[in-house]
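lol forgot to send this yesterday, sorry. struct tokens for the thing we talked abt
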């Protein structure tokens, strides 16, 4: 069974022969543990990969997002980074004042994808390929307006907010449509919706403003015969039933923030959990034995003839022996 078929069977709850794997590597891990990373990748190769972007036009960015200093992304947002190997944060939002709205640049260069090269890439691998795009309307609003201003906007609902969100959504639909017409296997979207213990906005507000956007993204994917994957950090238990209702195929979330049993009540048999193993406490502070117990617990609660992808993030603080233990444990259970 190829990796591509393995992931498909997992997403369809069709009794895959094993749990598919994917390691998320932050540059921090490569900087600190290059040999251990290479060893893990050789022993446990990924079943899921992302397509290169294959842009015909260069993105108008300045700097490196993972190096200390400033980085300007293709939207014109300036990130300030103080630690090598991770991404910084926006200090001076581009649209801090609505009078600056004309400064917004839609990065049309992201639509210059050489789709022939994408298709060639997909045909040359037996692994499951994700698109190299990821709509993030809530996070992009934060980058453009600043988090505090955005929360005020969400309460006051100025006309400018609706106009801005509409422009973002229209662009994201165009980008998803482009990738959906290639030979990739799944589209991807992302937004971090949770703090450690609660949603960052009320579930009611989320359902009113953002759920309809996600519904369109997921519908677009399915209309083209693609799966939809999503990443969202933090406590998002309140909206898990909504995501399952919309037909989301796979979700990467922080299961430990919500409790594996609570997640299972919402998702088991309905929505594939694309990881993860606790990267806040377990990977940096636990032991390989602790990791193995967590894997066993997740499998028992969430595996329903599929529905689980063995994913973990190797980022700041994670111990390489614990990252390796994640995949070793999944290979045993």
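and heres what i got for the seq, position by position
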């Amino acid at each position: 069974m190829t990796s591509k078929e393995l992931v498909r069977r997992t997403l369809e709850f069709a009794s895959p022969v094993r749990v598919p794997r994917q390691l998320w590597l932050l540059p921090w891990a490569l900087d600190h543990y290059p040999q251990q990373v290479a060893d893990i990748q050789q022993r446990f190769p990924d079943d899921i990969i992302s397509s290169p972007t294959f842009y015909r036009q260069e993105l108008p960015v300045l700097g490196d997002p993972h190096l200390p200093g400033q980085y300007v992304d293709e939207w014109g947002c300036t990130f300030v980074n103080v630690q090598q190997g991770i991404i910084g944060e926006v200090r001076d939002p581009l649209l801090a004042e609505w009078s600056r709205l004309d400064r917004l640049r839609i990065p049309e260069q992201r639509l210059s994808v050489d789709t022939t090269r994408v298709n060639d890439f997909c045909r040359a691998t037996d692994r499951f390929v994700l698109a190299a795009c990821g709509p993030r309307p809530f996070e992009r609003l934060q980058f453009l307006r600043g988090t505090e201003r955005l929360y005020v906007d969400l309460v006051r609902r100025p006309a400018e907010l609706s106009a801005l969100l509409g422009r973002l959504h229209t662009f994201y639909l165009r980008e998803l449509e482009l990738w959906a017409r290639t030979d990739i296997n799944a589209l991807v979207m992302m937004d971090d919706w949770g703090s450690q213990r609660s949603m960052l906005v009320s579930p009611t507000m989320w359902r009113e403003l953002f759920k309809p956007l996600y519904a369109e993204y997921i519908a677009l994917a399915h209309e083209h015969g693609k799966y939809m994957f999503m990443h969202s950090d933090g406590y998002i238990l309140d909206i898990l039933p909504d995501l399952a209702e919309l037909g989301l195929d796979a979700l990467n979330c922080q299961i430990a923030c919500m409790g594996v049993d609570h997640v299972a009540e919402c998702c088991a048999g309905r929505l594939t959990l694309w990881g993860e193993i606790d990267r806040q406490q377990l990977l940096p502070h636990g032991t390989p034995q602790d990791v193995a117990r967590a894997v066993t617990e997740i499998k028992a609660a969430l595996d329903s003839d599929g529905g689980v992808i063995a994913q973990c993030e190797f980022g700041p603080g994670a111990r390489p022996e614990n990252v390796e233990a994640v995949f070793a444990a999944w290979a045993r259970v």
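The radius of gyration is 20 Å. anyway ping me if u want another try
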